[in-house]
């Protein structure tokens, strides 16, 4: 696939001054175009998601260890492509803060920027619930969801049941791609406190029922968009601290509730559900971060400064 000549023709036709390529596939089609300022804006790095996907699949099937050499070689080729393409770009922007470090290792300089994200709906603030409801949502076949579902059922749920008690909490799960997810391997009848809704068109109905969203995944990719949605909508975030590697605006008990172990995760779930004052403060702070950084108008102004540097 090579559309660089067509792109060059369009740039000349419309007298374009700056070209912005979103993600590495788009970059691969324009990196060799000359006489124009080129900016790459990257999502999750392919060699990172490739490695973490292998790690998650390996956890469920150890015999896949035989593919480790192949995966390492794949990542070597991915990194070669990133270097080849990005060296020709004038600026490289990353959507995940942790990507700066990974690109630096292959001699690519980059800068993290908050990306524009619309507000889809607002969740109203809730008082303490007799039976607290928590929400997990997203593409169930995605990398972040694989990790989160594994952690939730294997580590968080048993501890939560021990601390709060049987049937004294509820976890709502919503999202598409059930057939491709880890969830399909789980007998939900053994987990009466966990309810699965499948794809929910009006997700705000579950937002308004839930005291917080939970994201126990312990890998730093595959989480950004859903967490920004929660910040914008006023639903508190309870997440593994690895999430802050990608989103530096997540600060424990300031803009989110972060944990470094399953035990700490359960403590933060209880703290969030019982401390109405702290929960309200976290919601307010998270919304301010969203308004200042990710609201499309705000993110656009930040990006404009980078373009004009």
How would you describe this structure to a colleague?
This protein has 309 residues and is an alpha/beta fold. The protein has 2 domains: 4-112, no CATH class; 133-294, Rossmann fold (3-Layer(aba) Sandwich), CATH 3.40.50. The protein has 12 helices and 10 strands. The chain has helices spanning 4-13, 23-28, 46-60, 68-86, 97-104, 143-164, 204-209, 224-233, 243-246, 262-274, 276-294, 296-307, and strands at 18-22, 37-42, 91-94, 111-112, 133-137, 170-174, 194-196, 212-215, 237-240, 257-259. It has a 6-stranded parallel beta sheet with strand order 7-6-5-8-9-10, with helices on both faces. Strands 1-2-3-4 form a 4-stranded parallel beta sheet. Helix 2 (23-28) links the parallel strand 1 (18-22) and strand 2. The longest helix has 22 residues, at 143-164. The protein is globular. The mean pLDDT is 92.
């Amino acid at each position: 696939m090579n559309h660089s000549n067509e792109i060059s023709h369009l740039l000349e036709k419309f007298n374009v001054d700056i070209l912005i390529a979103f993600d590495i596939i788009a970059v691969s089609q324009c990196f060799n175009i000359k006489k124009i300022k080129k900016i790459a804006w990257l999502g999750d790095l392919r060699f990172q998601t490739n490695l973490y996907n292998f790690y998650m699949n390996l956890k469920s099937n150890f015999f896949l260890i035989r593919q480790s050499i192949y995966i390492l070689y794949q990542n070597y080729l991915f990194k070669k492509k990133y270097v080849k393409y990005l060296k020709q770009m004038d600026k490289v922007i990353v959507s995940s803060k942790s990507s700066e470090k990974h690109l630096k290792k292959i001699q690519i300089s980059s800068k993290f920027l908050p990306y524009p994200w619309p507000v889809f709906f607002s969740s109203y603030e809730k008082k303490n619930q007799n039976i607290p409801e928590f929400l997990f949502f997203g593409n169930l076949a995605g990398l972040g969801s694989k990790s989160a579902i594994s952690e939730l059922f294997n580590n968080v749920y048993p501890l939560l049941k021990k601390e709060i008690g049987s049937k004294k909490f509820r976890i709502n799960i919503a999202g598409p791609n059930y057939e491709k997810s880890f969830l399909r391997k789980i007998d939900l009848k053994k987990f009466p406190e966990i309810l699965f809704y499948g794809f929910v068109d009006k997700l705000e109905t579950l937002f308004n029922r839930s005291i917080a969203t939970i994201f126990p995944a312990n890998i730093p990719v595959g989480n950004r968009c859903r967490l920004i949605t929660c910040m914008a909508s006023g639903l508190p975030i309870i997440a593994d601290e690895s999430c802050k590697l990608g989103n530096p605006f997540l600060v424990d008990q300031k803009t989110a509730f972060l944990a470094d172990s399953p035990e700490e995760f359960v403590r933060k779930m209880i703290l969030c559900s019982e401390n109405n004052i702290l929960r309200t403060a976290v919601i307010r702070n998270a919304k301010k971060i969203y308004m200042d950084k990710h609201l499309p108008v705000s993110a656009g102004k930040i990006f404009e400064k980078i373009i004009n540097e």
